[in-house]
Amino acid sequence: MATHLVSGSFQVSSKPARQPTCEFPHALLHNSSSHISVSINLKRRQRNFRDYASKYGTIFRKSSTWTSQAVLGEPGSLEISRNNSSLEVHDKNGLLMLKGLTFEGLEEWCVSQGEKPSRALQLWRWMYYDNMWMRCFEDAAGSSSSSFGRAFRDKVEPLATVDGGLELADVHEASDGTRKLVFRVSEGPAAGGKVEAVLIPILRSSGRKERITLCVSSQLGCAMNCQFCLTGRMGLGGNLLTAQIVEQLVEARRYLASVGDKTPITNVVFMGMGEPLHNLDAVLAATSIFCHPMGLHMSHNKISVSTVGLVPEMERFCRESSAQLAVSLHATTDEVRDWIVTADTLSTS
Predict the structure, then answer these.
(1) Among 165, 195, 208, 313, which has the minimal tally of Cβ within 10 Å of its Cβ?
(2) Which positions fall inside the Radical SAM core domain (predicted)?
(3) How far is 226 from 343, CA to CA, in rounded Å?
(4) How far apart are CA 20 and CA 346, in angstroms?
């Protein structure tokens, strides 16, 4: 039996829904007991979120969308600028964080430093490709054709860093093999806090290859205040930088290699701490970096970004990303949903 939402009301059909449908492209809508086919009339409503977010940080308005940002750490410790392809973020020492750049942004930066565009691919592979994952430029020193010469290292080390702004502080393993990676944040608005990523083993039937799904965080805390979510009760501590989102996948692969676990990470879900679309610039850049075939080489079909339904951001995400979008409905009416999810998001009417 399938449930259909049409013009703000649910209707029950005796026909099973063969495929989930939604007016929004890329939306993945789930229900544990039945397949749901949903047509949603989206409305932009910001009143409750504006009131709630003001409790946790400075309100600013951009592109007619209310957002909130609470900053930890020293004021002015983060410098942000933009090249043609991506944001350039500098750490507290003034070094450009290369892991915050898309591949196109890295090419532009290399050319601006008098290097050939091919230097970007060399850097990219050392940062991201299998079993390379350099932590500093010295890791790429050597006599092989792919190594960096002394002249280049001396030139770039005072300008940039390949540090991801996170440090793996602890690992907790559950009896079912799930492992929680706890990171200490060293840069940006969330500096001084701790965020988590989770390695979730996907057990297969006999003869089929095992795999791992990585659940990543996009913020320290969250401003959405969903009633069932413990992270929401923290309030928003700060957005993670693109480099810090990317580093969660890089560090997870480093960790698996260090313990001799060859199970591949095939899926990434943005279902950890934070509302991903409340940090959309960083999330869009991170998904682009994840999917580059010469680096972390994730499939865009295997990346899911979960949201409570920030409507303008959903529209932008679907325009600019080919990753999957998972929309959390939680309820069948606005009245119940407004109680569960206090931030104004999508509407069923």
Answers:
(1) 208
(2) 208-349
(3) 8
(4) 18
Residue 37 CB neighbours (<10 A): 19
Neighbours of 73 (CB within 10 A): 18
- Look up the pTM and report it: 0.77
Confidence of residue 163 (pLDDT cuts 50, 70, 90): very high
Tokens 């259909």 — which residue? 4
Domain architecture of the chain: domains with CATH: 2-38 (no CATH), 47-72+165-340 (3.20.20.70), 79-161 (1.10.150.530)
